[in-house]
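@channel sequence for tomorrow's demo:
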Amino acid sequence: MAKKREKRTTPARPQLGDNVEILSAGEVIESPITETLETNYMPYAMSVIVSRALPEIDGFKPAHRKLLYTMYGMGLLKGGRTKSANIVGSTMHLNPHGDAAIYDTMVRMGRSNESLLVPFVDSKGNFGKAYSRDMAYAAARYTEAKLEPVCEELFRDIDKDTVDFVPNYDGTTTEPTLLPVTFPTILANNTLGIAVGMASNICSFNLVELCNATIALMKDENADLMQLLPAPDFVGGGSILYDAAEMRSVLEKGRGSIRVRAVWQYDKANNCIDITRIPPTTTVEAIMDKITELVKAGKVREINDMRDETDLNGLKLTIDLKRGQDPDKLMARLFRATPLEDSFACNFNLLIGGQPRVLGVRGILLEWAAFRAECVRRRTYHDLKGKQDRLHLLRGLATILLDIDKAIRIVRETAEESEVVPNLMIGFGIDEIQAEYVAEIRLRHLNREYILKRTEEIEDLEKAIADLEDILKRPARINKIIMNELAEVAKKYGKPRRCEILYDLPDEGETEEQQEVPDYPVHLFFTREGYFKKITPQSLRMSGEQKLKDGDEVAYTCESTNSAELLFFTNHAQVYKTRASEFADTKASVLGDFIPTALGMEDGEVPLFMAVTTDYTGHMLFFFQNGKCAKVPLASYQTKQNRRKLLKAYSEKAELAGMLHLTQEQELAIFINAGPATLRLLLVGSALIPEKTTRDTAGVNVVSLKKNARIQRVRPAEGLELADPHRYRVRTLPAAGAILKETDTLEQMTL
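structure tokens (generated this afternoon):
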């Protein structure tokens, strides 16, 4: 690495007074970019990762933990609700990042917002809805909140040294680094976090299934989670399309995709579809916007009206159908084209011991079990220490029982107060702590009855201490305690699954209900005025004379099949895609279908060219009057979504001279208007024209044009009768071509 160079200049700032100056003023210090990243960027990135964006093993980010602990300290677990503004203000003692961020955090943890499967905040008032981006929540001064009863499991024995406490940002109080949760909250609720260079997206599981799975894993680390946790469970419900491979990846690796489909029912009386549950990754407004887009594009024609009927009873999106429409077929199409079916991308990235790790469900539950075991161990040691201290005091009191009169005499005969404790220690052979405890007993308590009642605890304490010591020595007993707590949580707070699981799914190839399309030979005709005909060979043999509008002529004809795809290129640089099967068989004696009307083209938009294909092989060649040609693979117009209209089909930077669809390379004849009564001809192999992958490319120079010259038209060279074709043929591009001979000109004028 290059040595640091320091460039010093004279101070740019004036002195602030006598003998006062700004140190290092005007100095420019150059340093390597790597050093700047290490000193400035990395601390920021690590702060975001460790202290903000990623959840920890207790299932919370720092913002969530600070809020819940503040509410716990305010007595909102057992007491009544208080104004949300009061909670937000108190939380700022731990989280000084603004009231708006704190309140937003509380809203999303509230029951009425429906963001969490296991909510932690008992909210009252308008807290908005997670499934609607337009249903904004009310200000903090209008709403009230307290902790849900399940939060008792978050703070159980937190005052028994179960977790570490650290000073807050200004050192005025302390806060827990983790919460001693009695169930795996990390998987009980969905969590989204975006850090620097990494992200986290954890889905939620049903609480009963989660607790049972944790118990099973603690008994056997190799337990089959596929049976214990069949699929996630989301607060909004929906139907989960079960994929065994993806689910196994989520359970074992922490990555995978869960497909969720909306729940709907058909109201026959009103001829409408009622959607009552949607995937957790979308909103009602996003679904309505997409359906509206499909209706405007003409891709969905079965819908008459659509409205959001969500109220206090819950979500409800109603779609009115036109008469005679099949709701099942419509919903199948909407599932494919709208967020009514969406995927939840799992990325189980969380902090373990301050280090980000991606773990599967199995790994997370095992890590949580180890964390909870440490909490129980610390709680047990705290209880053990308290009972040992109590036993120690009572044993000293029991010693006093042997001679209460002696104790009174020692106290009475001691001249100085400071000598009372030492004299008791000498008189009864007890330590300083025991003597201090005895000395503090009130005079009214120096009776045999009081002392006997206190000493009766000694036997119970000895048994309890022995039991606690046994717990600390035997990890199996700690695991048993955790299992009992999990079973209690599942019984007390467990609820039925909200998402149904669909195991019987169609094959991936059967994403769309395909109607059998008969395939048979047809003749296709396209006229310059934009009329299209599809005629069977039999019908064409019976009547070969084509009926056309006055002044119209056939621009393109070919033999193909009924399943062929048709691409109509227009003067607006757009292409419309359809199939021959979508047009009815007709006869030569009729005008045919008017393409601008049939395909819903824009005002003033007319089709210029028709390309026919069955496999999207070959190229489209666009010749421009400025001498350039764009050679684009026909496959560039193929789409997986079967879009009917593509923008930027070709370049609009120059006037179009003509276009061709070539299924194989061949020789082309380019006619060039070089001036008054001057026509030039260029014969060139299409293979010499380089291919471009971008549809709207400007192309490459093919013809060298003089001033006011332009490409007039282009056609395949096959069929031209030229006396000397070598006169016009070239092997390199660009080329100017040769003046067309008079004999050749007369022949070509008749073509």
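heads up for whoever presents: DSSP finds 20 helices and 35 strands in the chain.
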